[in-house]
């Protein structure tokens, strides 16, 4: 049995390796000034967003998406489940009206059947799987079962005892439904849809979960924790939740169903009880999430296996009920203006509003020359920056000053690290500017859109807490930290 499980994991890895992870966006419509479908699609195109998830099957929206190539997930709202789950004919009519009348001009790739039904509408749970089966039968009749997948999004709250991840299992109350549901997903080569919200896990942890862990920021080694059952290291809440779902499925003997995250994000504004719902934190979370997904990092349990994710969401929704944060999960306001500027260099062709592409990391004016030289040596050494352009006779050798050379090396490192927070510091001798530092034939990495490529490295630039002395021991120790996976598991007492 163990060998079969390993073979299934190998198959899953092979399939996922062929399918690169993607970032999509959810498109909510609870806006007092909702843009027209044409305006929405125009924004999607300008931001190079190629995957979207709709919360319904709005005809006007589907028509606007026609012939764009954008991959679309349409949804069956919860209030339609009962009718579809009780009638094969109703399901067939739904597919005819909402899928067949638009496909293939509109590139519909999946159907999201309900949303978080088990946790928000448990009375509808008995009709969930019948609805999925009836819809699938309609797709089979149209010979679209391979092109369009069916699944249903789950809240991560249905996973119990989720930390450490290896101990996770689904709420056993739902076993009579989860087992046949997983059998359906497996038999149709579909995926488990999961909504992952580290923001809520952080808020509900009463200080147990560090903010940096929720935001994908690295933690100091003394905060590192390891799943005692698997010895896997976790660097962020997102991966821990996804792996908890994988372990929960394996507990029910399902090991070859991939996971797709249908919602994840961070609010940019909150009320007095939500101090960490800020634009800076939303920027950090979504920027790091996008890089993490598009690097095909996978999770500790399944490294390299794609975890495609839809960001929640495209627009701020001012009509949503509840606290202030509920209205402020969007990347854009209703006019298409970014709520904050994402840091996405090297993330690929998604969300082109990354105006930080026009920022540069340079030597700080008046910085100590010895500290500059030490930082330059680190960047060109342990920092793994290609400094060949600074050699005598090369494009960026002149002017032959430590300030000029350090500026080039700092900027190259900054872009190599995806312009992430804290990567333009170098013990206080570096700063960010919007002025292009290119001169003559010396072109800085970020000039004219020639951005560096973000690599999945945890190499850390010298921080303001470092002690600099030439290329001394502190820089060497920082380089050694590259090989440490900073992480934390979310069970009580681990941070004491």
UniProtKB/TrEMBL annotation:
Its main location: membrane. InterPro entries: GH (IPR017853), Glyco_hydro_17 (IPR000490), Glyco_hydro_17_plant (IPR044965), X8 (IPR012946). Its EC number is 3.2.1.39. One of its GO terms (molecular function) is glucan endo-1,3-beta-D-glucosidase activity. It is an enzyme of class 3 (hydrolase). Pfam families: Glyco_hydro_17, X8. The keyword tRNA-binding does not apply. GO terms for biological process: carbohydrate metabolic process; defense response. It catalyses: Hydrolysis of (1->3)-beta-D-glucosidic linkages in (1->3)-beta-D-glucans. The keyword Lipoprotein applies. Residues 1-17 form the signal peptide. Residues 359-444 form the X8 domain. It is found in: Cell membrane. It is a lipid-anchor; GPI-anchor. GO terms for cellular component: plasma membrane; plasmodesma; side of membrane. Keywords: Cell membrane, Disulfide bond, Glycoprotein, Glycosidase, GPI-anchor, Hydrolase, Lipoprotein, Membrane, Plant defense, Signal. Belongs to the glycosyl hydrolase 17 family. PANTHER family: GLUCAN ENDO-1,3-BETA-GLUCOSIDASE BG1-RELATED-RELATED. This is glucan endo-1,3-beta-D-glucosidase. It comes from Erythranthe guttata (Yellow monkey flower).
């Amino acid at each position: 049995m163990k060998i079969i499980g390993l073979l299934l994991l190998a198959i899953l890895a092979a399939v996922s390796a062929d399918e690169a992870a993607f970032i999509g966006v959810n498109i909510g419509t609870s806006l007092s000034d909702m843009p027209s479908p044409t305006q929405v699609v125009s924004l999607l195109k300008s931001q190079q967003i190629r995957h979207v998830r709709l919360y319904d099957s709005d005809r006007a929206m589907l028509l606007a998406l026609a012939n764009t190539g954008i991959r679309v997930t349409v949804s069956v709202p919860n209030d339609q489940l009962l009718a579809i789950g009780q009638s094969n004919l109703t399901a067939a009519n739904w597919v005819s009206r909402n899928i067949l009348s638009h496909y293939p001009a509109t590139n519909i790739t999946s159907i999201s059947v309900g949303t978080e039904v088990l946790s928000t509408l448990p009375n509808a749970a008995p009709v969930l799987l019948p609805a999925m089966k009836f819809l699938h039968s309609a797709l089979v009749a149209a010979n679209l079962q391979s092109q369009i997948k069916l699944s249903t999004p789950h809240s991560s709250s249905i996973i119990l005892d989720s930390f450490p991840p290896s101990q996770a299992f689904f709420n056993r109350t739902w076993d009579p439904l989860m087992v046949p549901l997983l059998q359906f997903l497996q038999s149709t080569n579909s995926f488990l849809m999961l909504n992952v919200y580290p923001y809520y896990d952080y808020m509900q942890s009463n200080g147990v979960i560090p903010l940096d862990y929720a935001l994908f920021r690295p933690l100091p080694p003394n905060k590192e924790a390891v799943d005692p059952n698997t010895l896997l290291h976790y660097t962020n809440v997102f991966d821990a939740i996804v792996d908890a779902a994988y372990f929960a499925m394996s507990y029910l003997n399902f090991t070859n169903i991939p996971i797709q995250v249908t919602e994840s994000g961070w609010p940019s504004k909150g009320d007095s009880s939500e101090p960490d719902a800020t634009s800076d934190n939303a920027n950090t979370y979504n920027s790091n999430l996008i890089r993490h997904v598009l690097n095909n990092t996978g999770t500790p349990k399944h490294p390299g296996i794609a975890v495609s994710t839809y960001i929640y969401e495209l627009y701020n929704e001012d009509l949503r009920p509840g606290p202030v944060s509920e209205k402020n999960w969007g990347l854009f306001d209703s006019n298409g203006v970014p709520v904050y500027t994402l840091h996405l260099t090297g993330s690929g062709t998604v969300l082109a509003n990354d105006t930080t592409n026009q920022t540069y990391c340079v030597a700080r004016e008046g910085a100590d020359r010895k500290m500059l030289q030490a930082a330059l040596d680190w960047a060109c050494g342990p920092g793994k920056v290609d400094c060949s352009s600074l050699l005598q006779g090369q494009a960026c050798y002149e002017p032959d000053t430590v300030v000029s050379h350090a500026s080039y090396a700092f900027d190259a490192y900054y872009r190599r690290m995806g312009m992430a927070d804290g990567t333009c510091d170098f013990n206080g001798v570096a700063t960010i500017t919007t002025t292009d530092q290119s001169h003559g034939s010396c072109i800085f990495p970020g000039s004219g859109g020639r951005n560096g490529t973000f690599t999945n490295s945890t190499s850390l630039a010298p921080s303001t807490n470092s002690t600099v002395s030439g290329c001394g021991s502190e820089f060497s120790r920082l380089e050694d930290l590259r090989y440490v996976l900073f992480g934390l598991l979310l069970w009580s007492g681990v941070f004491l």
